[in-house]
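Run log, item B.
One chain of 880 residues. Sequence copied directly from the ordering sheet:
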Amino acid sequence: MKALLAALALVSISGVSVASHAAPDRTGESYAAPSLRLPEGARPIRYELALTLVPGDATARGEISIELELARPHPVLWLNADDVAVSNVSVSAPATAVEILPHADQFVGLAFEPALPAGKHRLTLAFEAQQSRNSTRGIFALQDGGDWYAMTQFEALSARRAFPCFDEPSFKVPWQLTLRVPRELVALSNTPVVSETGAASGMKVVRFAETRPLPSYLVAFAVGPWQSVELGRVGMKRTPLSIVVPRGRRADAAFAASAYPEIFERLERWFGVAYPYQKLDQIAIPLTVGFAMENVGLVTYGVTTLLAKPGAVTPRFRHIGASVGAHEMSHQWFGNLVTMSWWDDIWLNEAFATWIAAKIVDQWRPEYERGAARSEERAEALAEDVLSSARRIREPIRSRGDIFNAFDSITYRKGATVLDMFEGWIGEEPFRRGVRRYLGERRDGNATAEDFLHALGTASDRPVAEAFSTFLDQNGVPQVTVAMSCGAGGAKLALSQHRLAPLGAPKNAGQRWQVPVCVRYGDGAKTREACVLLSGESASLGLEGPCPKFVVANAGGRGYYVADYGDDLLARLSANRSLLSPPEYAGLLYDLRALVSAGSVSGAQALEWVRSAAGARNRHVAEAAIELALFIRDTLVGDAERARFAAFVREVFGRRARTLGFSPRPGESDDDQLLRRSVIRFAAPEDRRLASEARRLALAWIRDRNAVDSGMVDSVLLIAARTGDAKMFDAMLAEARKSSDSLDRRNLMVALLSFSDPILARRGLAVLLDPGFDIRESATALAVSRKSIPPRRETHEFIEANFDALAQRVARDTPGSWSEYAAGLCSEKDRADVEAFWRGRVTKYEGGPRTLEQTLEQIEMCANLRSSQEASVAAFLPKH
């Protein structure tokens, strides 16, 4: 490694060099640049990476040595490199010249003369990489409190932005990393530091222990004035744990410091495998970004997920922090120890982590979600999966855009729900045995969906792979029609399935799944469960006992299907609502959105369910009622009925909102406080008195941070913005400009992007062009605001009018996702206008075409729904 560091000082990094002599013919097939995957026949065995990294500099300089093995002679070798300038290359083969081929998109070609023979070689490349200030991909730099920090984010295709490498998940080998950094800063990576020595010019050299086999996307490092909260040694191997924070924020790690060791130990026990790595640091990115990343031994989190001031540890912060922490830590086993072979199986990582996080948090703190967290996640997946253009869980990867698109609700939430459904079908212990078998067989290696499903099938002795694959390899949602008959022979359910299709969408009558349908039924005093694998178009399920008073056709809300109740079964459920579990009741309310979309239930029927569920004591049920009401507002209520719908909201939710108020009471539970937040956010903009109070509190909070309960600050600011005037806007903007607190700044920016007044909405959107705000934070705030306010056309119009200026401020492919800000529009004219603007642009951006197709389908679906269901809602509202 000393030789590598010496080379760093001597090599001039000036871009790609090409031999000046007459170049040989490079037109043969061996010299053709790849377009997606690296050619077969070459694989890395080990990496040594040395990097000089000064946070805030424009670039980082480095040298990487790759021990590799060739299965055949290579006249040219291709590596991944994206905006990385390679200046010098050498290879261990004697008398072999190396030429750097002209640039190919995200690849660098190395031509050898003579051809590099089969066998093992050592390849060394000197390079220079960018430190990005407008994205969080590759090596990125940021400033916080006057300090500069540099960090990495390599999933999915961004290790190639930091150094040349084999940047595919199946190339899983040991890495040895050395960083040359300013002497006063702290350097961290996947493994512990093994040596730290002084260097010239105020620098030091930090060498890290060699890793276990890792794919490139899990390599990570961070440099800055970090401080650590040491949590001691935890678990089977007494692993050292720590929380790493920006300078001066040790006190803000109290919740994570308390919770994460306990969650870590529960995960270790569940997997039955000792934590496989040498240490686990969990580090806060000093930006309010909306992601976390499971890098081996160095997990990264957006600062507002991991840290909170001692007086701002709210229920929402604790619940989110526990869930995200459990998700990321679970990856250390499922995803890191065993890694998917290719990106079509990213669901193995993300669906499993989403599923296990809910299970572990429920075990750790049963009162947090009461087993109902999956209901909302399932509903988010259903809302996306009803689209004809929806991805499959295991979508073939034909372009880099397909990889970008894979990190969506289908992968995370549909995948998690399907796992939950099949765990219910085969049983908890057989499922866990299958997971442990899979980890044991594939540790330190790669795996596919087939490997995982085979392990589950072997452990459970059930045909898991065949049934599971019907959900894995096709998109769409099964709509299971349920009818009951009672006679002398007892009660029976007639079940049939077809694809749920929104009104106006094409039908796929022949699509089938193998659906584990589990029902719960009874009379209240006694209930039973029964299950059947619905593998064909229809099936019959016999029920024990007398004809039941009610039937829940998705027991526990675990099934990934929508039950469509025939005869009077839906009315029976309404009459027996108190007998439904929270996941069942919440799941039914969410399913009504899909059934309204398909025309199986009217908008008026759905509003009756909203009225009935609005006062539910269980938070998840009440929140599901709010989500159903929001769906009706945004898709079925035309301009003429807006005032009447607002009156309905005040009638059904207003009294509860006013009773809850903006401040917690002594002795309240987490559920009480979280329910207050949900009800107030929905009802207050329609209630003059509550809106006025929110505006008063917002101005008071700007003067004094103690004027509003920490758990209600974001809601107060949001409501004040939605109902506010220019004076309110100016006060928020001035405060956002001077705020140094990341959470305060994020809440203010979300509010600025949420004003209802069209003029103020456009002023708020101008924040995206303001160089005084970090574009990474303002873009995150825009995404948050989109989920918090009614659909509006101002956002799409602003993007249209300022597209070129906006595109210059963000990372290369970011604009490809912007068409989704038009997804809430609701007319054929809107669809035509959106398509006209975007069709010629999206092909320039990875992932853009699919995002546009889904946006256009959502607009069309809304237009079809409104034209068919608006009259039903309009007839209902005047009566209530």
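Observations after the first pass:
- The mean pLDDT is 93.
- The two ends are 76 Å apart (CA to CA).
Flagged for discussion on Thursday.
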